[in-house]
Amino acid sequence: MGSILEWIHANQQIIYIVILMIFVGIEVIGHVPSVLHTPLMSGANAIHGVVIIGAIIVMGKAETNNYLALILGFLAVVLGTLNVVGGFVVTDRMLEMFKKKKKG
Amino acid sequence: MQLNILTLIYLIGSVTFIIGLKMLSNPATARRGNLVAAAGMGLAIIGTIFLYEDEAGQKLGNYGWIFGGLIVGGIIGTLAAKKVKMTAMPEMVSLFNGMGGACAALISIVEFDHWVHTAGWTLYPPLSGLGFDDAPDFGTGHLLIIVLGLIIGSVSFAGSVIAWGKLNGKVKDFAFKGQHIFNILLLLVIVALATYLVGWMPANSQLVFYILFALSLLYGVFFVFPIGGADMPVVISLLNSFTGVAAACGGFLYDNKVMLTGGILVGAAGTLLTILMCKAMNRSLANVLIGSFGGGAAAKGGGTKEQGSYKEITLSDAAVVMSYANKVFIVPGYGLAVAQAQHACHELEKLLESKGVDVKYAIHPVAGRMPGHMNVLLAEADVPYDKLLEMEQANDEFATTDVVLVLGANDVVNPAAKTDPSSPIYGMPILDVELAKTCIVNKRSMKPGYAGIENDLFFQPKTSMLFGDAKKVLQDLISEIKNL
Q1: Are residues A45 and A21 in the same domain?
Q2: B231 is known as an active-site residue
Q3: Inter-chain residue contact B264 with A36, CB threshold 8 Å
Q4: Which helix (H) or strand (E) element contains residue A13?
Q5: How does pLDDT run across B186-212, given as a tens digit for each residue?
Q6: Contact across the interface for A88 and B372, Cβ inside 8 Å
Q7: What is residue A99's predicted lDDT score, i.e. its pLDDT?
Q8: Crossing angle for the helix pair A52-61 and B63-83, nearest 10 degrees?
Q9: Are residues A90 and A65 in the same domain?
Q10: Across the strands, what pairs with B329?
Q11: What b/e readout covers A46-71, taking b as 16+ CB neighbours within 10 angstroms?
Q12: What average pLDDT does range B412-417 have in this prediction?
């Protein structure tokens, strides 16, 4: 029991962020019309591509003789970039079509 | 100083994600919202590359590898996203989601290797409980996060790839007896192994770790396998929020606030979105995950129902009926998407309008393979936004409609959803096309729709069938109407 309390104390900042972000995430998209479900999912998909930052850190910290870290890190950077770039471009393409109809 | 700038950059990044998501949920601002989030992401990536320092003040190295990876991923990602057909977009999203999951899993593998070689062995015997007192960064909590990232990332990766395969038809539905029990057991084994690894830190921890990796991949595969293709959007949305949580694990690991906020934000929003999608189909998430549509239940439902008789309508009759109607509703479905018939559809609409017919579209929330799929397709063909009516509005207008033209939609107009409690789609809100005076249904054949069940609508006296590929039929209809 004591150790759990201690853990909470040591990580309170992060725990606060997690809890607040859960509410923000729910609140922010609470009123989305069903038309936008797919683009929103795609946009959110691109945002979790933020994992790329972890991949960059792994890659950048790897010693030059640690081939496991280098190869896996490189792969992670490639995959993460795919997630970010592909995600945003696909979302933009979907939404581009929504915009067109506005003019028309 | 540089680190302070990086903190500021991460703060800006986190805020752009929140604002971006907010703007994405409003049609007027959605596109800008996406760009705002993308800009924040770009800033965070560049900031990390040039400004990041670890605890020892060490900057990142291996720039060649980093930029190489960014360029390779960037080029492939852009090309794939630009080249993909509108109909294949759901698959693409799933695949990109899987890449994110794999990225998170790879990070965990490298970090675990690092952990084993540096702190892992020195911590023997393990710290009691969740105590962090001895080694703040390399204790139980650190390992727990690594393992969590691995499991969630792997499940998300394997699941997304299967979902991708299912959507493009490469992977067939596959279920065996007792699969749900098998899945639950598999999950329990994973949890038990993870607890063993994190709690006891056994000497063979590397072996346990890689077994966990393999089992998580396996679980991802079996998790998605039995779920019917029509439910893939819900599954992708769920896996999307999984990947968000996996990314957040990375945030914990590196005490990186932008990863943490971005990941948790997507995890929460994705979960809510999943529930909203289920609601649009009037089903619970549990029902989607355990329901195994298309499997046993559907076979039973389809077999017992006897086929009535249906009547066909000729192209010229259909053309006459439609051009002399006052009000026509078009109900698009997956058949329209497959046939790429959205342009022909818009042409027919314009032609009928020029003859004084009031033409509108009735969009079911889950028509096609993704919520909003039809809106995107029709928007591509320049169909004006105000012509697309959502289900409730359309249902109010069907009673005063002369002709409903159903284009490759099936389950979303199946009256069994209202009348037959034994039907797998019972309870799903549908478009009440039977209220209209006549109903013309275009399908390729009498084959049942995605849910694998018969549709009574086709056998009703007001309904007539117009068989053929949606695009071909529409083009023929257009030339028939022109010849009138």
Answers
A1: no
A2: no
A3: no
A4: helix A12-28
A5: 999 999 999 999 888 887 888 999 999
A6: no
A7: 58
A8: 150
A9: yes
A10: B360, B404
A11: bbbbbbbbbbbbbbbbbeeebeebbe
A12: 83
H or E stretch at B467:
strand B463-467
Which one of B358, B396, B411, B476 is the catalytic residue? B411
Residue in A34, A55, A56 closest to B365 by CB: A34
My answer on whether A49 and A2 are in the same domain is: no
Domains in chain B: ranges and CATH: 89-291 (no CATH), 310-483 (3.40.50.1220)
A18 and A57, same domain (yes or no) = no
Asked if the model's pLDDT at residue B46 lies above 50, the reply is yes
Mean pLDDT to the nearest integer, A42-53: 94
Quote the domain boundaries for residue A57.
32-104
Do A10 and A37 belong together in one domain?
Answer: no
Q: What pLDDT does B99 receive?
A: 95
A85 and A73 within one domain: yes
Express each pLDDT in B274-321 by its tens digit: 998 888 776 778 777 775 544 444 333 333 444 567 888 888 888 888
Backbone angles phi, psi at B372, to 5 degrees: 85, -5
For B412-435, what is the mean pLDDT? 80
Q: How many domains does chain A have?
A: 2
The answer on A1 and A18 residing in a single domain is yes
What is residue B202's three-state secondary structure? coil
- In this complex, which of B35, B44, B78 lies closest to A53 when CB atoms are compared? B44
Tell whether A64 and A92 lie within a shared domain.
yes
**Set of chain B residues whose Cβ sits within 8 Å of the Cβ of A26:** 268-269, 272
